Amino acid sequence: MTADQPTAAATVADDLVTETLLRCWLRETGARPDADTHTIDIGLPASGLSIRAMVTHRSPSGWHRFTQPELVSPAGTPSPVDAGLLATLLVREITAEQGLPAAHGTEALGRIIDSARRIAAHLDARRTVGHPSAVPPFLAAEQASLTGHPFHPAAASRQGASDEAMAVYSPERAGYFALHWFAAHPSVVSTSGVPAAEGGPAAQLPGGRHPVTRLLAELFGGDASPGATGRYRPIEADPSAPPGTERGGPPDPHLPPGYVPVPAHPWQARELTDGADGPLAQLLADRRLIDLGRSGPWWYPTSSLRTVWRPDSRVMLKLSLGLRITNSRRVLHLGELRLAEMITRLVDAGLGAALTARHPDFHLIGEPDWVAVTRPDRRPPSRASDRLGIPGSAEASGGGDAGDGAVALATAIRTNPFGPTDRAVSMAALVAPRPDRAADSRGRSRAAMLPRLLTRLADRRHEPVRVLAETWFERYLTVLAAPVLDLYLQFGVGVEAHLQNTLVTLDADGWPVAGWYRDSQGYYVAASAASATERLLTGFATNLDVIFDDELVTERIIYYLFVNNVFAAAGALGAAGVANEHRLLGRARDLLSRMDSDARSDRGPAGPPAVRRRLLATLLTSPTLPSKGNLRTCVDGRDELIGPVATQSVYVQIPNPLLEAAP
After folding, report:
1. Which end of the chain has the smaller Cβ count within 10 Å, N or C?
2. Residue 280 and residue 393 in one domain
């Protein structure tokens, strides 16, 4: 490594965050580049200054490219602006606009700067350690999103975690680690189906074993009954980090008879057991909870950081993690866990089969099971730490109901359909800039995975890359966007199909052949479908916040699927110079028009009701569309996993890019 490489990485990270801040500002304020001068001028009345930048690429979807911005003052000559100064100025404008003291934006500013620093660390690590080799395709894609969300100013922020910890726990750093395990007495464990201490015959497997506890025992190291053996073998174990170091532990800690093994993220386990007044202190003191330490094979963090994967496991694990990642602490709530369980049951009750009949290449990944350490009354431990997001205040529990609050020690269990050879790639990985890679064959630096894939395909086939990009985009719409739209139109179910939660399976040439949606906490059942859903699965919505007005469901589908996903794919390809963005948006309009025509012709009892068809009309004709304002949400200080769904984030209206592609 040469002496200038860390500086180079920091410079690249600064450029990326600067570009993101400018994109966010334009999106969230409605400002548009001057059509004649191709410049943006951002007035900053709170500071008496302004920011000016040239627009080198204009995107209908907001994926603009800029020259380095300059600070313009009435008295002086323009001077370059870096990400830290730009963030300071923009955050100050937002707080002043809202009548808040300037200090209100300090935390948001800290997260933005932390994000830039983390991105630089990711790039430095890739330069010094190199790219992981012999990594399964799914994992390689999960490790590829080095820069995070393209419209989030603090996309890589991980407040509360040291650099040393993130070297082990970050997918961007090719991290891997053994799980930390606790043994929990059944009186303080709640699980999917029924609490572990209350399992009736209907909830048991032969031998009186609850299915979830059996799975947990297998994951821990074999059946939990006396004398049982068996454990997964570590894969690609790093000889520099043998069991017993920070990554692993002894292979076979003792599980007391009758206790339930509960996995935890090692970072979370350390936070929970550090000190005598932690939220689990009483349970540990009276031995209803026993700390078993780290053990077992390596698990690999996916792009969400808290979900871990193994190629030889039939499940993934989503772990409670009290880190504030972007805007939110990723601590699981009992309501989220129950929702995931019931959604999986709804899919299994017939929703999945009905959707598959219409879209055989699209799949909903379920999270059928979960485990949580609670008090004997099934409530989360109440001695809370705000830093961990554990209830003890109305804010931490999302409205004061501790029985549905955050759980410091909890795991959602997700079905794992991806083995060591599956080429399932998240849309986030496909569009994220890759400044760690050398320039592509056309000399483009920082090119994302998808533009690189299409460029290589064009070189092999001797075909125009823009033609191939349109074909790829059409297939992506077919296997991913159309099924998500149909899920709402036909069945009244919406999902948060954003870049990170959606994946496409690629064939050997890189064409999309299947679509996937993951994250069972991101479901909405529309009020128009409440009765049909109840008929399909009796008691589905009991004690769950899952039924929402169609208007809200429509808003979320438009944002997550189109603004966040479809427009991102089109914008990224256009910004990379491998496609005409207007033509890609035209293909999206064509899909919507076909679906709208089909919906209008199918007005019988089985067709979509008018309230759902408005989704298509809004996308095709509305001058503006709803979009989450990530910069404003960041400055506002909201944790987006807390509080009523309708107000968890700040939403704004943006110009509808599809109108630019209208005939």
Report:
1. C
2. yes
Specify the CATH number for the domain of residue 566: 1.10.510.40
Tokens of 98: 């809202």
Residues 431 and 389 in one domain: no
- In this structure, the answer to whether residues 325 and 449 fall within a common structural domain is no
pLDDT tens track for 428-458:
999 999 988 876 666 666 789 999 999 999 9
Is 570 among the domain residues? yes
Residue 342 lies in a domain: no
Are 535 and 606 members of one domain?
yes
pLDDT tens digits, 297-338: 999 999 999 999 999 999 999 999 988 888 778 889 888 999
Nearest Cα to 540, choosing from 401, 333, 339? 339
Question: Largest Cα–Cα distance in the chain?
Answer: 82
Return mean pLDDT, the chain.
85
Could you give the dihedral angle defined by the CA atoms of residues 382, 388, 389 and 390, in that order, rounded to the nearest 10 degrees? -10
DSSP one-letter code for 243: T
Helix (H, G, I), strand (E, B) or coil at 256: coil
3-state secondary structure of 499: coil
Helix (H) or strand (E) holding 625: strand 624-628
**Residue 345 burial (CB count, 10 A):** 18
Q: How many structural domains compose the chain?
A: 3
Whether 215 has a pLDDT exceeding 70, the answer reads yes
- Pairing assessment for the beta strands 70-72 and 79-80 based on DSSP bridges: antiparallel
Residue 301, beta-bridge partner list: 308
Assessment of whether the complete model's pTM goes beyond 0.85: yes
For residues 504 and 611, membership in a common domain is answered with: yes
201-224 burial code (b ≥16 CB/10 A, e <16)? eebbeeeebbbbbbbbbbbbbbeb
Under DSSP, the state recorded for 333 is B
18-27, 244-253, 424-433: least confidently modelled range: 244-253
Both tokens assigned to 168: 């082990």
Inter-residue contact 306 to 265 (CB < 8 Å): yes
Is residue 407 situated within a structural domain?
A: yes
How does pLDDT run across 587-633, given as a tens digit for each residue? 999 999 999 999 888 765 667 999 999 999 999 999 999 999 999 99
User: pLDDT band at residue 276, thresholds of 50, 70 and 90?
Assistant: low
- Amino acid code (one letter) for 295: S
How far is 589 from 586, CA to CA, in rounded Å?
5
- What does the alpha-carbon distance between residue 75 and residue 399 come to, in Å, rounded to a whole number? 50
Which parts of 288-335 are beta strand (E)?
Answer: 289-301, 307-309, 315-319, 321-325, 328-330
Domain interval for residue 116:
5-135+153-159
Give the residue ranges of DSSP H helices in 558-602: 567-575, 581-601
Query: Cβ distance 320 to 409 under 8 Å?
Result: yes
Whether 173 contacts 301, CB under 8 Å: no
